[in-house]
Amino acid sequence: MVVAIDGPAGVGKSTIAATTAQKIGFYYLNSGNFYRAVTKAVLKAHINQAKEEDIIAVANECNFNIQDNCLYLNGKSVEKVIHTDLIDNRVSFFSTIPEVRDIVNRNLKRISLHRDVVVEGRDIGTVVFPDAEVKIFLDAHIQIRTQRRFEQGISSLSREKIKKTIRSRDHSDKNKPVGSLKKAVDAFYIDTSYLTIDQVCEKVLSEIRKKQK
Ligand code: DC
User: Domains of the chain, with CATH numbers?
Assistant: First the structure.
């Protein structure tokens, strides 16, 4: 079974998707981390970032694997080094390149083959797994998403700057030529603004149980 969870930045997708996957014993895939890993590889390659073909060439050399629920890029665990302000800033651009999206999507499909998975991202229920048995779209007010990101303590930016970044990421996520952020028509919509993580997970699990029956 494929459970697709989509939604904007800072909505709590990773926590909800990882917790849900753990509760039902499904494999967990965070597609945003794949785009972040490509971005990390591009920054490391010191190429001209204005040349799309060079970015695509680096993305093509990326070898993705999951071990113990962590993403490995070319044999190295990258989870701890892909959530920086610099990567936040560049990933919105690199993830607009259709060929980069193809590479990430092919890897997501390869890893999900013959597995029960919870996959999170922006276009999972619309583009990557349009036939997913369960589709969830998470949403929350920008003010609340800003506060959640701020409280994570990962970013060194002020609350106001974080809000600005989220707003600009919303804009680029929604206006990508391919793979833009939108709710699949058959996705279950959850506004998480005033819900706890447990309450959201319970709603997601209830959708999964309905399909498992
Ligand atoms: O979920 P995240 O913030 O870690 O995602 C990182 C970036 O990747 C973000 O700019 C949106 C992009 N992304 C995407 O375009 N498509 C996806 N399925 C997942 C993430």
Answer: 2-32+84-212 (3.40.50.300)
